[in-house]
Design brief:
Blueprint (H helix, E strand, L loop, with lengths): L8 H32 L4 H28 L8 H14 L20 H29 L5 H29 L8 H20 L1 H5 L4 H4 L6 H8 L3 H17 L6 H9 L4 H33 L1 H22 L8 H34 L4 H29 L4 H7 L3 H26 L6 H22 L1
Helix pairs in contact: 1-4, 1-5, 1-6, 2-4, 2-15, 3-4, 3-6, 4-15, 5-6, 5-12, 5-14, 10-15, 10-17, 11-12, 11-17, 12-13, 12-14, 13-14, 13-17, 14-18
Length: 472
């Protein structure tokens, strides 16, 4: 039967807790990585970018495998829930280990003799595998909590609501880590604070498995090989539009985003870590609060004008936000750029929710086309695409730093020319605008409207009713 009932508050909150845990897993690594490995350990930026990229490529490759395994997995506890528990525990345990590389004296060596580089690359791959075990079944579980067009959006937003609660606390990891009254340096602070965050990942990460129920009808469907599953989704036009849009926005929007913390620290704050910590803290908290408003507003907007139009409107607001950084991202007023970022935050979370909800619709469209539900494969191939792009962006961030003349050794000896940071600032503003324009063009042709999904839903109901009568 179809799961069209209203999802209970227990399930919404339980599934949302997984979003909180998800927010801690890679956000904390991404927040601290450049500060520790480039700024503190003095690793070459291009090499640091490679060390960040390799695990993300590995993570991306394992996603479709885990997605198909999750779709085909059978146990007395369901397809998704046992894997969620295992993945959450592994992520929490491994998180603080990122900051204890051996052979620090070799950090200036070539990659094959560079202990910190090799350590982070290997540790990152192990951590990525643990994350895949958690995130793929967790995401698929959310897609199948309801089959109702509107209810999906209302349910999926709880991952983002609670994820934003976690996001607002992430900058405290950096702020406490650089506080000399608590820790002697950022290295020691990162290890201790990551241990605390890892405990949160474990506790919050297992909540979806405890609170949410899986739809039993999906466990009864025939198992499908990974090649057959991939073969079917590549013929799903709306799904390919989602993937293409994701590639464009991620590839150009995040190309130098990883360097934004270093730009702010050394260009906006003049190397003042305390000021940078304050900006980071206020920006993350403000971003979380504004994003909550964004989720509520975009949900209402999507109900009125549809998910596609709501997503396009949000993307236009993003363009305005990045464009205004041209005048607000200046050292004279270090907090002024937060007003520009507020426009980006207003749209980003809500637009992401629209993509999540559209992906859930596409999963139902896949059943309409091929008779199979494949939430695990479709969600994992989507995350595979995002992670592959992010991995590439890890490389491009390091190359962009190198190309623009960023040298951590010269910086520590007397600073860099302002022109270096102005070049990085230009890239930081321009690339997301290019991606946003491209994605608006792509989604002008997205076909799965509310009316179309109602037709699909009616047809699938008819098929299931026919199958029940045939079985009797």
């Amino acid at each position: 039967m179809y799961n069209t009932k209203k999802v209970s508050w227990k399930e919404r909150l339980g599934w949302g807790c997984g979003g909180w845990a998800d927010n801690y897993t890679f956000n904390i690594v991404g927040l601290l990585y450049m500060y520790i490995y480039v700024d503190f350990f003095k690793m070459d930026p291009a090499l640091a970018g490679m060390a960040l990229a390799v695990p993300r490529f590995f993570d991306a490759i394992t996603d479709p495998i885990m997605g198909n395994w999750s779709d085909n997995f059978r146990s007395r506890w369901g397809r998704r829930r046992p894997l969620i528990v295992i993945g959450a525990i592994l992520c929490g345990v491994l998180l603080p280990l990122h900051w204890i590389p051996p052979f620090l004296s070799t950090v200036g060596n070539p990659w094959y003799q560079n202990g910190p580089f090799l350590f982070f690359t290997i540790m990152g791959c192990i951590y990525a595998m643990a994350y895949t075990i958690f995130i793929v079944p967790f995401t698929a579980l959310g897609f199948e909590l309801s089959d109702d067009y509107e209810e999906r959006t209302h349910v999926l937003c709880w991952r983002r609501y609670l994820g934003l609660c976690g996001q607002s606390l992430v900058p405290f990891v950096y702020k406490f880590s650089v506080n000399p009254n608590i820790f002697p340096n950022i290295h020691v602070g990162a290890i201790v604070m990551s241990c605390v965050a890892g405990l949160f990942v474990i506790v919050l990460g297992i909540m979806p498995a405890i609170c949410c129920k899986e739809n039993p009808i999906h466990q009864k469907q025939q198992k499908v090989s990974i090649f057959a599953s991939l073969g079917s989704i590549v013929h799903n036009g709306p799904y390919l539009q989602l993937i293409l849009g994701l590639i464009v926005t991620t590839a150009v929007g995040a190309a130098v985003a990883g360097a934004s913390g270093l730009i702010t620290l050394h260009y906006i704050c003049g190397g003042n870590e305390k000021l940078n910590g304050d900006i980071t803290l206020y920006s993350w908290i403000a971003g979380a609060l504004i994003s909550v408003v964004s989720l509520f507003t975009m949900t209402k907007l999507a109900t009125k004008v549809g998910k596609r139009k709501g997503f396009i409107i949000g993307t236009i607001v993003t363009i305005i936000g990045y464009l205004s950084l041209t005048w607000t991202y200046i050292p004279k007023y270090p907090f002024l750029h937060l007003f520009s970022l507020a426009l980006v935050w207003i749209s980003s979370q809500g637009s992401g929710l629209m993509l999540d909800s559209m992906c859930s619709d596409v999963c139902e469209y896949e059943e309409y086309l091929n008779g199979q539900r494949a939430e695990g494969m479709m969600s994992s191939f989507r995350t595979f695409t995002a992670k592959a792009c992010n991995a590439l962006c890890g490389v491009t961030t390091g190359l962009a730093l190198k190309f623009c003349g960023y040298d951590p050794t010269k910086l520590s000896q007397g600073g860099l020319d302002v022109s270096v940071f102005l070049k990085l600032k230009t890239l930081y503003i321009l690339l997301p605008i290019i991606g946003s324009v491209a994605i608006i063009i792509i989604f002008c042709f997205y076909p799965l409207s509310k009316e179309k999904m109602a037709e699909i839903h009616s047809e699938l109901e008819r098929r299931h009713t026919k199958n029940r009568f045939s079985a009797n």
